[in-house]
Amino acid sequence: MAGLIPQNFIDDLISRSDIVEVINARVPLKRKGKEFTACCPFHNEKTPSFTVSENKQFFYCFGCHAKGNVIGFLMNYEHLSYVDAIETLAADQHLDVPHENNPAADHKRQEKQPLYDILQTAAELYQQQLKTSDRAINYLKQRGLSGDIAKRFNIGYAPQGWDFLVSNIGNTSNRLEALQKTGLIVIKDNNKTYDRFRDRIIFPISDQRGRIIGFGGRILDQGEPKYLNSPETTVFHKGFELYGLYESKQALRNIERIIVVEGYMDVVALAQHGIDYAVASLGTATTTEQIQKTFRTTHEIIFCYDGDNAGKKAAWRALENTLPVIRDGMVAKFLFLPEKEDPDTMVRKEGKQAFEQRIQQASTLSDFLFNNLSAQSDISSNEGKAQLASKANALIQKMHNSLYKDLLIENLSQLVGLSQQQLESKISTNTQKPSAKAQPVTAVRGQQILLNKTRIAIALLLQNPALAGQHKVPESFVRASNKGLPLLYQLQQSIESNTDISAAALLERFRNTEHEKTLSILSMLNTPETENTDNIFEVYRAIIERLNNEQRELYFNEKLSNNESLSPEEWREYLKRPNQDPENNI
Question: CA-CA distance, 253 to 242, in Å (whole number)?
Fold first, then answer.
């Protein structure tokens, strides 16, 4: 699959993506000198050994030797395939991934594009209808919404009647098919059609690229269902999307926290009052995928629910889905509103300042976890403590190794009167082994890589592709017996195919090759030569010339030892050669 995506697109995508920004959205980083550090997400540690180089755009762990570029990080951290990691990066950059000679991918794109087009057309029609419907406008005004906020969220109105969309978009076979595939119309057994959304306020749902992928519709009067959503389609998967996330990103440059609510109107009402960081989980329990997507945008999530039993059950499901995702530096809180209140009614009653004060006082995940479990058990008895420990143990097992996990175990230890060591032993015994993709990459020869001029030259060129334009690697390196020299020439050729290639993109070209592991180590190699940025061109030129002299010496010696004659030009070169001894191969 990798070869089906144009290499230049991958190069450009890696160059556009800042590895510090991508990793920091998932594993909070701290600056340390020229680099950033954190506790490694790929193995359990309490002292940070995970390093991210902003300059080189690589990451490396000195503890488990995990290493790579931004694509490699996403593959390991989020258990993505190579193509999925590229798709994730491309989505963050609002780019479509092109494919070469891939009929399946071309067909998939061709199949989806008419759906995006028809959804956009329908959204525009709904917005036009809102402008002409006094009834719909008055409803929104009664809910405290302004025209500006309605425009910002592209709110519309689906009029009464059964065939509004077919009448206005057209009834050709292609358009009818697109309307049906997006769930905008329903075709009955007798082939008659009717609009899914009728006499409802329409909330378009956008993906992270701003494309409309579905709709939510709220009834104006009494009736059921109160909210109606688009069905699952090729472009709309309810459990993966969040209403309002795209609009929040458009409104805020830096999103410090996101509040997750249940309804479309809650999101819009909060934005109306200046709280631009709300999203809705589309009427379902907040899924792990939605939580992962939210944590890519911010480090803090506040789950906001009604304080009744239904709200607490929904919050508990959110907690269970958060535990496999949360890592050090991430914060999850739970805000419960008074019964029969929701964010929409609450913020209209008390305003932004009072509502944000509630957010500040939200319960932490650990408090909600242990308070809820303690209420289910009599922890004054050993039996109750054992029950609490067993339930908490089952939940904590879901978590990645982290300091936060250790602190939860410590809290549990204090509650049940068992030592932290006993609890950790129990949890580590029951915890499943991580999947193969989550295993740290093993370094070649550990950290004891033998340095020589060839490896230093490769490290210099890999970390600084601009060197290729200053001093070319001789073509004769292709046939050299020192196996590192053909690799050095291969790097040169890769750079010449894209002279603007970044170091991280250059490394990516060697994924799944015999050189991947060695190059990954050399990409983070720090030696006096690689660190001497003031004189790096001269250092590199001198090493290449020295390697060339050594390679030619080996060539001459081999020919002469085999009684092969040299050409006149070779004799002249041989007589002028410097006397140098070859070093270790790569």
Answer: 18
Top-confidence residue, 445 or 186: 186
Q: What is the pLDDT of residues 41-94, one digit of tens each?
A: 888 888 899 999 988 899 998 888 888 899 999 888 877 778 888 888 888 777
d(CA 214, CA 115): 10
Q: How far is CA 215 from the centre of its chain?
A: 25
% of the chain exceeding 90 in pLDDT: 37
Picking from 347, 253, 360, 232, the residue whose alpha carbon sits closest to that of residue 300 is: 360
81: tokens are 């395939």
Of the candidates 548, 563, 557, the one whose C-alpha atom is nearest the C-alpha of residue 574 is 557
- Model confidence band, residue 154 (pLDDT cutoffs 50, 70, 90): very high
Tell me whether residue 582 is in a domain: no
212 and 327 inside one domain: no
Amino acid (one-letter) located at 495:
I
**The token pair that represents 70 in the structure block:** 């931004």
CA angle at 578 for the pair 574 and 579, rounded to the nearest 5°:
100
Which helix (DSSP H) or strand (DSSP E) does residue 475 occupy?
A: none
Domain ranges, residue 430: 376-438
Q: Say if CB 489 and CB 423 are below 8 A apart.
A: no
Residue 119 token pair: 């959804």
Pairing relation of β-strands 258-261 and 300-306?
parallel
Identify whether 444 is part of a domain. no
- Decide: residue 507, CB within 10 A, 0-12 exposed, 13-18 middle, 19+ buried: buried
CATH number at residue 544: 1.10.860.10
Give every CB contact of residue 538 below 8 A, 6+ residues apart in sequence: none
The partner residues of 86 in beta bridges, in order of sequence, read: none
Please enumerate in sequence order all residues whose Cβ is within 8 A of that of 95, keeping only pairs 6 or more positions apart, or say none. 13
Tokens 């999947």 appear where?
435
The domain total for the chain is 5
